[in-house]
Each structure stands twice: as C-alpha cells, then as structure tokens.
Amino acid sequence: MYNVWENVLAEIEQKISPAYFSTWFQDTSLMSAENGHIVIGVKNSFYVKQLRTKYYNTIADALTKNGVTVDNIDFEVKSDVKPKVRSREVPVTIELPKLKSIKKTSDTTDNGLNSKYTLDNFVICSNNDVAVAAAKSIIKNPGTRCNPFFLYGGPGLGKTHLVQAIGNELVKNNPNFKILYIPVSRFYSDFIDAIQNGKGKDFNRRFEKLDCLIVEDFQFIVNKEKSQEEFFNIFNNLYQLNKQIIVTSDRLPSQIETVDVRLASRLTMGGAFDLQLPKFEDKCAILKAKAEFMGAEIEPEAIEYIAENVNTNIRDLEGELSAILLMSEVRGLTPWELIQNGAASINKNSKLRPTSSKQVVEKVAKYYNLTVKEMCGKSRVSNIKTARQVAMFLLSKELSMSTTKIANEVGVKDHTTVMHGIKKIENDIKLNFTLRDQIDTIKEHIYG
Ligand code: ADP
Ligand code: MG
Question: At what angle do helices 415-431 and 433-447 cross, to 10 degrees?
C-alpha cells in the first residue's frame, strides 16, 4: 500500500506547484483502502479542510490512475504513531461549504457524480463562456444539440467541474435520468477485469440503458486498442439512441496518437469546445467568487496580486488563494497585509518571469530600433505601431498585467486600445511566421 501512495504522490506532484505539494502532501499517508473507502492520514485538522476542499479530486484521480478504486475519501488526523496501525479515531469529515441544500442521493456514488460541482459555483468568463453555453443547451435538451459534447483543455482549467455540473443538473431535472461518469482509466481497468473474469462480452451491458455517458481524460486511451474498440461500440449504440455523450480530454482526438480516425471524427462531430487559460480579468473574477464562496474577506489588491502571479491554471489559482487565506487566519493579518509583508510570496516557478514591465518595454523598443519614448508615443507609423502592440501583447502574456496597467505602461489613452492591440497580435501570429519569430527572439532577449 505504501508503494501505491508513493506513486500517487508522484502523480500529484506533477500536477500542482512544488510549494503546495510540500505544504499539503509532505506528511500524508495512506491509512487504509478497503472497498473503495480510502482513509488518508494528515498532520492536523487544517490539512483535513484544505485537502478535502482543494485536492479531493486530484487525490481521487491519482489513486484511480494507480489502480485503486475510490468511492469516497476520508481524512484522519494521525497522531505520530506509525501510519501502518489503523487508528481507532473517528475520521474527521469536513462538510463542504454551502452545499447543505444538496442532498447526497443514493445514486450519487454509483453514477460517479460529485455534488460539489455545480453550475452555480462555476464562474463564467471569457475562457469558458462558449463551452458553458453548450453545457446549458445540453442540460435543457440532452442528446440533441452538442452530441457528443467534446470538451478539451489543459489540466486544472475546469473540465471535470463543468462536465460534473452538467451531470448533476441533468439528475436534478430528472431524478430518473440514468447517467454514468467514468474516467477512461476506470473504463479500461473495469474492461480488463471483465475480460479476465470471462465477462468481456457482457461488459457493454452496463452502458446499454444509460441516458448520458460522461467519459473523462480520453487521452489515456492511447495504446489501449481493445478498450478503444469497446468504447467505439458503446459510443455508437448510445449515439444511435440519441443518448447524450460527453467526453473530456487534454487535447483533440486527432492529436491523440493511436486513436482510430473514424472514432476521432465522430467524437468531435457535435463540436469541440475548449477551455483556455483565463485572462487577468477572468482570474480576478474567479478569485473573487471563490473568496465569497468560502465566506472570506480579501482586498482587491490581494486578488490582483494573486491573479498577476499565477499563470498556470485555475486549480493553482484556487490553491494560492486558499494558502493565503489560511496563512492570514493563522497570522492574524489581512491577505494584503500579509502580501505586503512579504510573508505570502507566490511560487513563481510556473514561468520564467522578466523582472519588470519596464524591462519588457525596453527590450521590445530596442529590438525594433526605437527608443522607448518613440515606441510609447503617438506615432501611427506602421512599424512603430506594431512594436507598441507587440509590447502590449508581451506585457499581457508574460506578465499577466491588466489592460489598464498596460495602457499606462505603453502610453496609450485607454484599455480598449490595448485590448485591440493584443487581439491584433494574437491573430497575426497565427499566419505571420516572421512576426512569430520576432516575438520569440524578443522573449529570448527578455529572459536571456
Ligand atoms: P480539469 O478537470 O480541467 O483538470 P478541474 O475541473 O478539476 O480541472 O478544475 C480545477 C479546479 O478549478 C477545481 O477545483 C474547479 O472547481 C476549479 N475551477 C475551474 N474552473 C472554474 C471556474 N470557471 N469557476 C470556478 N471554479 C473553477
Ligand atoms: Mg479533470
């Protein structure tokens, strides 16, 4: 069991920033795992709350990936006895905030849905609004439009949250709706079990009567040919009956090696929807909503500081927020006081960051043989304007600065000009390879 936990930790370590990993996972252990009931030992009750609210899914995913069946996870404060002895203490279970009104129905565990994910607590912003609109249309009319619903994007951007929320809403609207949420890794291991027990032929029975099938992390189907074939059959059967199919992945099916081309094209015929990295304003909105949800007070300056410094994903954004709120509780300072005191330095390993916006502006100007004054002046001459827009683009992408701050930095009147400038470069680099190379070279100068 201990080896398993080491593997699980290794998996988690890849997903979260090193600072969090050592803060939250260093002293954890797997106390027991019987019949899907997992008990994890932690240092004290602070950790129980953090791990339960922030890392529940990460831990569950990592356990599943390592072949451990997970129905529910409890966290237990361990005394410093060796974790091997299962303590008799009552496991500490923390109720999730504000979810009291949602009853845990008996099928919540069977169908794989977790009631903590709702549309109400999913913040809609420019990185996800199209996907959310599609989700809403599915909730209204499952199996008609957006079928299959293919949702893709990098880790920690809200795929699980959104598809779980769809599932929860569907069941809420119609308690008889038969739904199954299953990660591909689980699909695969159940399929292998069925074959080994001589029940391979009956495997698809479980899926026959479903009204909606949600399959997560489809990218892990790679090299699992038989499972893929089985999935293809199940997919076709359900699809013909107009049942809703929802699939998530970290990339498009056509980018997953060894995925059958026919399956790849079928998976995206209802449209492929992506979740993108949130922009500065989105990050602020998410942080604000999360803080409100937790009932915590946090100053706008502190929110902006976190938004500017976390450039990876929403999971890390949440992690940073919780860590700062926790520390502020412990130290008796407000989050912004804490940050100003330098006590809450955010781990910036996610990206190499240039030291200042001034440096970015200077490097861009220098590259285009302009002085900063020329570049940040009023000239509409084409190459000067492009340089200015490249500076806007880099300040946004590399420093996550708000458009208002960028406007100040490059001497333009208002933030809409900045938004336009960033968009222009974003579009241009799709086809203009010279511009793309130029930007890469400037980045080398900045970081070099
Ligand atoms: P993924 O499945 O893409 O790796 P998750 O759905 O697990 O990502 O999201 C990571 C964390 O970020 C979760 O705790 C989730 O609740 C939160 N999250 C992601 N997007 C949003 C959003 N738009 N609003 C609120 N929380 C979000
Ligand atoms: Mg996920």
Answer: 110
